[in-house]
From TrEMBL:
PANTHER family named in the record: AMINE OXIDASE DOMAIN-CONTAINING PROTEIN, BLR7054 PROTEIN
The protein, known as: Phytoene dehydrogenase-like protein
GO molecular function terms noted in the UniProt entry: oxidoreductase activity
Span of domain Amine oxidase: 218-494
InterPro entries, sorted: Amino_oxidase, FAD/NAD-bd_sf, Retinol_saturase
Domain of life the protein comes from: Bacteria
Record Gene3D superfamilies: FAD/NAD(P)-binding domain (3.50.50.60)
Entry keyword set: FAD, Flavoprotein, NAD, NADP, Signal
Pfam short name (any one): Amino_oxidase
Length: 569
């Protein structure tokens, strides 16, 4: 794969015919769906509003390309041999091109609450043993709590599972822990990583949190070699080497419905593109409310959209340090809570307030991927510090639509709030890295408004619709719809959210379009791509350039010496 991005083809030349499938949105779900369809002979066009494909798996670079940061690829489960990730990639001949690095098998994530440090291991048995070691006086309650979660999530004791699902699986995880008489500290450790789905514990079904824990406990946590952008780069390559096309900077304004059937899309600039099938991997709420429109909705769907809640949005701070944290033994992944009131923080954010003490997830790409070519020069480290904050535009003093432009970025109140929350995040990060401010050479933050602007997501949410019981299992939106020719992909569908789930779901949506069970076929060994047909990977391969098919940037990655402190943007 060459260093140079694919030159754009004028729309009048490339898109004047009818495509078999148009995919709206080039996140991991949309790209995987497009790749499987292209590999199975469909003429596929993927449309992305941003200038870079990948959705929340994309990266960005700062300080003259000296530092690279992941937007949302922090750690992923089920990526080992036989896991869902490897299975989904195998059907596209990408298992050797997208490599997954296992993170600290002895404990992939360090959890810190006042007075307790806990390392999340692989395996339910080891997890229980470590909980008991941390809270020996609560052994009976911990055994009961973990046993119920294992039955619900891992399918152990099949005869008991239906009863446990009805008795506990549908109830909030806080109810289960209270029934097991767990202390606030023990509950905080069990809940500490729930920032990976940003939803209040008192509103999270036990089945949801237990399933989340199982995602990592069954085989550990992984990170893609080369950073999150390799995912979008290689999926794009499959599409474009198999007769398809990926267009960036192409915002879809409407999904065209004629005689009750989806027949194509209209872009914001008025261009119309016809297709036999439309797959929307865009935000679920906006797909129906804006792209399809009220006239084509069922009564049930209108009611659902009216009351639909989204997961809480992220506030992220991106930092570079002039020290290699690996030399200190700093963990590559951590969740740091300044207090043990997990639910209390969520209640404050839900109420539109941001407490002085903010929990922080800490991800260190330079430690997760020591041989990464773009994260930072030798002797430096990069950090992604994530928390969550109120979604309301009023909180951020944003009066206009952030997707229409970036004028909010010059508002004094917005900038003040951004700086205040940045300092709170750094305060918490100091609990693990005491000299973070002294060693910091770059710092930049993004808000829920930033997420909404670049991903066109409702309320700036990263994870789609909220994991309430009414949105889980058989109640979660299917990839097929009531409109013939219209399918869905992405994190708000039946396949759930997260990088692994959306990639798996993209394969599922492609199968629905084709009328085949691609999951079963791939599990049986089907490979639809000949790797020899893919673009050769050269020494100067740059995933970010390969993920900009609408750009004509022709330059190597730059590494400028010297420290740079960048202000808010």
């Amino acid at each position: 794969m060459t260093q140079t991005a694919t030159p754009p083809t004028p729309a009048s030349e490339a898109d004047n015919g009818t495509w078999d499938v148009v995919v709206v949105g080039a996140g991991p779900g949309g790209l995987t769906c497009g790749a499987y369809l292209a590999a199975n002979g469909k003429r596929v066009l993927v449309l992305e509003a941003n200038q870079v494909v990948g959705g929340s798996t994309q990266v960005f670079r700062r300080a003259g390309n000296k530092f690279e940061f992941d937007v949302g690829t922090h750690y992923v489960g089920e990526c080992g041999p036989g896991g869902r990730m490897q299975t989904a990639l195998s059907g596209l001949a990408l298992t050797e091109r997208i490599k997954w690095l296992r993170q600290r098998p002895e404990g992939h994530c360090q959890i810190m609450i006042p007075g307790t440090t806990f390392h999340t291991p692989t395996g339910w048995d080891t997890y229980l043993d470590r909980l008991i070691a941390a809270f020996p006086e609560e052994e009976a309650g911990l055994r009961r709590c973990v046993r119920i979660m294992r039955i619900v999530a891992a399918g152990e004791s099949p005869r008991l599972r239906p009863y446990m699902l009805l008795r506990w699986g549908v109830r909030p995880i806080t109810k289960l822990m209270d029934a097991c008489r767990l202390s606030a500290d023990a509950q905080a450790v069990i809940l500490a990583e729930n920032g990976d789905y940003t939803w209040p514990p008192h509103r999270t079904p036990t089945a949801m949190h237990a399933g989340f824990l199982h995602h990592y406990l069954q085989a550990g946590a992984y990170y893609p070699r080369g950073g999150g952008q390799v995912i979008g780069a290689h999926l794009t390559d499959v599409i474009q080497t198999h007769g398809g096309r990926v267009r960036t900077k192409a915002t879809v304004d409407q999904i065209l419905i004629e005689d009750g059937r989806a027949v194509g899309v209209r872009l914001r600039d008025g261009e119309e593109i016809r297709a036999e099938v439309v797959v929307s991997a865009a935000d679920f709420k906006k797909t129906w409310a804006e792209l399809v429109g009220d006239a084509h909705l069922t009564r049930r769907l209108r009611r659902r959209l009216k009351d639909l809640e989204m997961t809480l949005p992220m506030f992220a701070v991106y930092v570079a340090l002039d020290v290699d944290l690996r030399e200190r033994g700093t963990p590559p992944l951590a969740w740091v809570w300044p207090n043990n009131d997990i639910d209390g923080y969520y209640r404050e954010v839900e109420a539109g307030r941001c407490p002085e003490q903010m929990p922080v997830g800490i991800s260190c790409p330079t430690a997760k991927d020591p041989e990464g070519t773009h994260s930072a020069p030798p002797g430096y480290s990069t950090l992604e510090l994530v928390s969550w904050a109120p979604k309301d535009h009023e909180f951020w003093n944003v009066a206009s639509d952030p997707t229409a432009g970036a004028t909010y970025g010059r508002d004094e109140r917005y900038l003040q709030l951004k700086e205040e929350l940045t300092q709170r995040v750094l305060d918490t990060a100091e609990l693990m890295i005491p000299d973070i401010r002294e060693r910091m050479v770059f710092c930049e933050a993004s808000t829920p408004i930033t997420q909404e602007r670049f991903t066109l997501s409702s309320d700036g949410s990263c994870y789609g619709i909220a994991p309430l019981i009414k949105n889980l299992g058989p109640f979660r939106p299917r990839v097929t719809t009531h409109i013939p020719g219209l399918f869905l992909a992405g994190g708000s569908t039946e396949h759930m959210f997260g990088i692994n789930a959306t990639i798996w779901g993209g394969m599922g949506t492609a199968g629905a379009v084709l009328g085949r069970d691609l999951v079963e076929e791939v599990r049986d060994g089907a490979v639809f791509v000949d790797e020899a047909d893919l673009t050769p990977i050269t020494d100067d391969f740059d995933p970010l350039l390969a993920s900009k098919p609408g750009s004509v940037i022709r330059r190597a990655v730059r590494r400028r010496p010297g420290s740079t402190r960048v202000g808010q943007q």
